[in-house]
Specification:
The complex is a heterodimer of chains A (752) and B (226).
Chain A lengths: L9 H10 L3 H21 L5 H13 L8 H9 L3 H14 L6 H13 L4 H14 L2 H14 L5 H17 L4 H4 L3 H4 L5 H17 L1 H8 L2 H13 L7 E2 L2 E2 L1 H15 L3 H17 L5 H16 L4 H15 L4 H14 L4 H5 L2 H6 L6 H14 L5 H14 L2 H18 L3 H15 L6 H12 L4 H14 L4 H19 L13 H13 L5 H17 L6 H4 L16 H10 L13 H8 L21 H6 L13 E6 L2 E8 L7 E10 L5 E9 L5 E4 L15 E8 L8 E9 L2 E9 L9
Antiparallel strand pairs in A: 1-2, 3-4, 4-5, 5-8, 6-9, 7-8, 9-10
Chain B lengths: L1 E8 L4 E6 L5 H16 L8 E4 L2 E8 L2 E7 L5 H19 L4 H6 L1 H11 E2 L2 E2 L4 H14 L5 E4 L3 E4 L8 H6 L55
Antiparallel strand pairs in B: 1-2, 1-5, 3-4, 4-5, 6-7, 8-9
Helix pairs in contact in B: 4-5
The chains are: A alpha+beta (752), B alpha+beta (226).
Membrane topology (chain A): Peripheral membrane protein
Subcellular location (chain A): Cytoplasmic vesicle membrane; Endomembrane system; Golgi apparatus
Protein name (chain A): AP-1 complex subunit gamma
């Protein structure tokens, strides 16, 4: 019985595998058994080979390698014993796919078995051929299969027909062989053979327009077959739930669909039958509904009479009300396909479709959403949007994006009024702000911007929304923009379209400040808030320096100014981020220089805010252009010269700020070669505070071209003697240069 | 057409995989893993259909087993549900109140049954009776001994080559392995049971066949040789 004493029977092996408590244990059992199996294969025991292969197929299903059994499949298939063949063919179907070399070797065995005359054996061969036959095998064996189509045994015929179907799929040219027998096969009474024949004809028609034309002639015959099927009494053998052979009905209907498509005459021939099937099929169980569903698909795809089309859509509408959610699913899918071509018919079922939005099943509610969006038009847009907004509030996250963008799209297409449009967009942003597309913000700002009469309304609504929730980024961005643009409308008077809202300037600024500081705000959002604040500073106080407002490359920290502008500068004080680090006067100056030099690009730093000291307010800073400052009483100082590159310092002590010194570093180049990658860095003693503005450029052009300037701001609260060290790095004449030096001879006016 | 059918348990153990489209082992494993995950994540109240990759998937749970079919875009989901149900009915009839354990321990039978119902991804027979009959007959053939159909003589069990007449030997489609035994018994009273139609007899040549399949009948006929 067993090849070796410790090799198991199949069922025992399965038992032992199931008893293994861990993956490792299972692996051990299987590896041990596989070793036996390999040995058995090597020894070539013919009697038990099928048992060994069966065991191998089992472990293969569990995911273990079984390639060493491939050749054994061949041997088993070639064996005269039926048991061997059965397992061998099963093995071939599981282990041998087209990619294996061994695959072709079964062709000969199959050929032998096909001509053997034992039905069961022929069946095995055909089955394997249809499951795994490669194109080459199909070509080799096509004529064998053709012969079997005429076999007396229906068992063999039904299998041969389906094998032909596979062959056509693999090698479409074989339709030459398999097309002719179809006419006779259509006269079959055996349901299995008939079903296979219909499948074969369908396959032929789908692949060849010539075949399609040829089989159109058979439409009357097909209609007759289906009619007989539907009208003859209840035949238990092929019926399901009182429906005669639904599999066959569905297949015939599908073929009719292909034949009737784009063909007036064929469509007409089948019209009555389709109406009959549509009205008479029992819809209490799934089998009947399956047939009905296929009928509907066929009606909608061919040239059917208008009344028939309406009937079909109504059937789908009824499906939508079916308690079986599978039926509702196919209804939604089909209606979606029809919504363009039969829009008004589908519109009639809109209420039911909208109901389906409440489905707990995601795949249904998704379909309902798609369909609902497709049904929105100018007359129902308000009601539909209401429903969809409700859905948006409760739908699962992965549907929110589609729903949100769907609503916005619909709003864009069908908005009855601009105000409604703004309201709708606003509501979407409030509900699902994180899921809207990137252009939503731009679209809304454009929409609001273009609706002058609604500016006041918009800014109020947005302000209220923002005051409630600053987490939804697109909303915050639009609100910030709006407040920046129309802040004046927000603060003044009232707007009749909204509730009375009294807003103080401080509240607005405080809100924007909150947005800036919130960890939830994205950099882009902060940008919007910033811009808004700057706009407000001009719009609220009539200062027309808009051009300068836009030029800031770096955001600098500023101190507050005179009291009248104290409120405004409260938030401006938070705006800037630089890295002022005081330096050691002596040895560690170089190190400190390097620390300092995070400044120009290091806005990732979050240094503590500067105490508001008497110094330039933001506006004043911004007022100062990067061009050379106006002539000051303090004389300029030339501090550096090398190969035509010259560095000059000019000093300004702004009145009203005794501790502030502004130094402008000007670099000029009289040489013949450009100075590139020019970087100037500075260091001051510990008690001083230094800030570097960004330079005007990093190239000092040759031949006395436009000089590069850079502004240094030095605060000297202790009025200590000024010391200044500079570090230059640049490229000149193909060489990189670094210079570090202390500035000597600083005029005493710079610090006294 | 159906691309493939999978049977798996709630724990994600594969019990059967039938592929109707050439795919590499590696690709199959990947698809099985992925699809199992998707289906097992479905809640009980959800519908039986879902879209996966570019295919439609129809699945239904019967006790502890998921029956899962991947079909193409133009295939009818509702009829696929009927197909799955039909397969379960066939298994049920064959094993007698089928449970997952039957399919585990007799996995090859599950394949054989499927192969009598579907071929190349299409239904080959819509009669339950017809499919079950075909399985029975194949099982009969799968007797422990060799088994041939002799034209006009019905089915014969292998027997001792020496005991069979030269004519009978010549009529055999396959050669007898020396030493194999052909049944040769005295006529006994016939048991009144259903006789499978693939076996026929006439009064002169009576053959004995014993069948060991589970719920199938046992027929005793005797054979007599010249």
């Amino acid at each position: 019985m067993v090849a070796s004493s410790s090799s198991l029977k199949l069922q025992d092996l399965i038992q032992e595998i199931r008893e293994a408590k861990t993956q490792a244990q299972e692996r051990e059992v299987i590896q041990k058994e596989c070793a036996h199996i390999r040995a058995s294969f090597r020894d070539g025991d013919p009697l038990h080979r099928h048992r060994q292969l069966a065991k191998l197929l089992y472990v293969h299903m569990l995911g273990y390698p079984a390639h060493f059994g491939q050749m054994e499949c061949l041997k088993l298939i070639a064996s005269p014993r039926f048991t061997d063949k059965r397992v061998g063919y099963l093995g071939a179907m599981l282990l041998l796919d087209e990619r294996q070399d061994a695959h072709l070797l079964i062709t000969n065995s199959i050929k032998n078995d096909l001509s053997q005359g034992i039905q069961a054996v022929q069946g095995l061969a055909l089955c394997t051929l249809s499951a795994t036959g490669s194109a080459e095998m199909c070509r080799d064996l096509a004529t064998e299969v053709e012969k079997l189509l005429l076999q007396p045994s229906a068992y063999v015929r039904k299998k041969a027909v389906l094998t032909a179907v596979h062959m056509i799929r693999k090698v479409p040219e074989l339709s030459n062989i398999f097309l002719p027998p179809c006419a006779q096969l259509l006269h079959e009474h055996h349901h299995g053979v008939l079903l296979g024949t219909i499948t074969l004809i369908t396959e032929l028609c789908e692949r060849s327009p010539a075949a399609l034309k040829h089989f159109r002639k058979m439409v009357p015959q097909l209609v007759h077959i289906l009619r007989t099927l539907v009208t003859t009494g209840y035949s238990t053998e092929h019926s399901i739930s009182g429906v005669s052979d639904p599999f066959l009905q569905v297949q015939i209907l599908r073929l009719l669909r292909i034949l009737g498509r784009n063909h007036e005459e064929s469509s007409e021939t089948m019209n009555d039958l389709l109406a009959q099937v549509a009205t008479n099929t029992d819809t209490s169980r799934n089998a009947g509904n399956a047939v009905l569903f296929e009928t509907v698909l066929t009606i909608m795809d061919i040239h059917s009479a208008a009344g028939l089309r309406v009937l079909a859509v109504n059937i789908l509408g009824r499906f939508l009300l079916n308690s079986d959610r599978n039926i509702r699913y196919v209804a939604l899918t089909s209606l979606l396909r029809l919504v363009q071509s039969d829009h008004s018919a589908v519109q009639r079922h809109r209420p039911t479709v909208v109901e389906c939005l409440r489905e707990p099943d995601d795949s249904l509610s998704r379909r309902a959403l798609e369909l609902s969006l497709a049904l929105v038009n100018s007359s129902n847009v308000r009601a539909m949007t209401q429903e969809l907004q409700g859905f948006l509030e409760s739908c699962p996250p992965d549907l929110q994006a589609d729903c949100a963008s769907g609503i916005l799209l619909a709003a864009e297409r069908f908005a009855p009024t601009k105000r409604w449009h703004i309201d709708t967009t606003l509501r979407v942003l409030m509900t699902a702000g994180t899921h809207v597309r990137d252009d939503a913000v731009a679209n809304l700002t454009q929409l609001i911007g273009g609706a002058q009469e609604l500016h006041a309304y918009s800014v109020r609504r947005l302000y209220s929304a923002l005051a409630e929730d600053i987490s939804q980024q697109p909303l915050v961005q639009v609100a910030a923009w709006c407040i920046g643009e129309y802040g004046d409308l927000l603060l003044e008077g009232s707007c009749e379209e909204t509730e009375p809202l009294q807003v103080e300037e401080e509240e607005v600024l405080a809100l924007l400040e909150r947005v800036l500081q919130s960890h939830m705000s994205l950099p882009a959002t902060r940008g919007y808030a910033l811009t808004a604040l700057m706009k407000l500073s001009t719009r609220l106080h009539g200062d027309n320096k808009a051009a300068i407002l836009e030029k800031i490359p770096l955001v600098e920290r500023g101190g507050s100014q005179a009291d009248e502008e104290a409120k405004e500068s409260k938030e401006t004080a938070q705006l800037s981020e630089a890295a002022p680090v005081p330096t050691e006067p002596q040895a560690s100056e170089l190190l400190d220089l390097l620390d300092l030099l995070d400044g120009p690009s290091g806005d990732a730093q979050h240094p503590p805010p500067l105490d508001p000291t008497p110094g330039g307010a933001l506006i004043h800073l911004l007022n100062l252009p990067c061009a050379p400052p106006p002539p000051a009483p303090i004389p300029n100082l030339k501090v550096f010269e090398r190969e035509g590159l010259q560095l000059n310092l000019s000093f300004v002590r702004p009145p009203g700020t005794p501790t502030l010194l502004l130094i402008t570093v000007t670099a000029t180049n009289t040489s013949g070669g450009d100075v590139t990658h020019f970087i100037c860095q500075a260091a001051v003693p510990k008690s001083f505070q230094l800030q570097l503005q960004a330079p005007s450029g990093d190239t000092v052009p040759a031949q006395g071209g436009l000089p590069t300037t850079q502004l240094l701001r030095i605060l000297n609260p202790k009025k200590a003697p000024l010391r200044l060290k500079l570090r230059l790095t640049y490229n000149h004449f193909g060489q990189s240069v670094q210079e570090i030096f202390e500035v000597n001879n600083l005029p005493v006016e710079t610090w006294q | 057409m159906m691309r493939f059918m999978l049977l798996f348990s709630r724990q994600g153990k594969l019990r059967l995989q039938k592929w109707y489209l050439a795919t590499s082992d590696k690709e199959r494993k990947k698809m099985v893993r992925e699809l199992m995950q998707v289906v097992l994540a479905r809640k009980p109240k959800m519908c039986s259909f879902l879209e996966w990759r570019d295919l439609k998937v129809v699945y239904k749970r019967y006790a502890s087993l998921y029956f899962c079919c991947a079909i193409e875009g133009q295939d009818n989901e509702l009829i696929t549900l009927e197909l799955i149900h039909r397969y379960v009915e066939l298994l049920d009839k064959y094993f007698g109140s089928v449970c997952e354990l039957d399919i585990i321990f007799n996995f090859e039978k599950a394949y054989f049954i499927l192969d009598e119902f579907l071929m190349g991804g299409d239904v080959q027979d819509t009669s339950k009776k017809s499919v079950l009959k075909a399985i029975e007959q194949a099982d009969l053939l799968q007797e422990e001994k060799h088994f041939w159909t002799l034209p006009g003589l019905g089915s014969v069990k292998e027997g001792r080559a020496a005991a069979i007449s030269q004519d009978a030997k010549a009529a055999l489609p396959v050669p007898l392995i020396p030493g194999t035994r052909v049944a040769r018994f005295k006529a006994k009273k016939k048991k009144k049971r259903k006789i499978p139609s693939s076996i026929c007899y006439d009064n002169d040549n009576v053959f004995r066949i014993s069948v060991s399949c589970a719920n199938v009948f046992i027929v005793y006929l005797e054979c007599k040789f010249d």
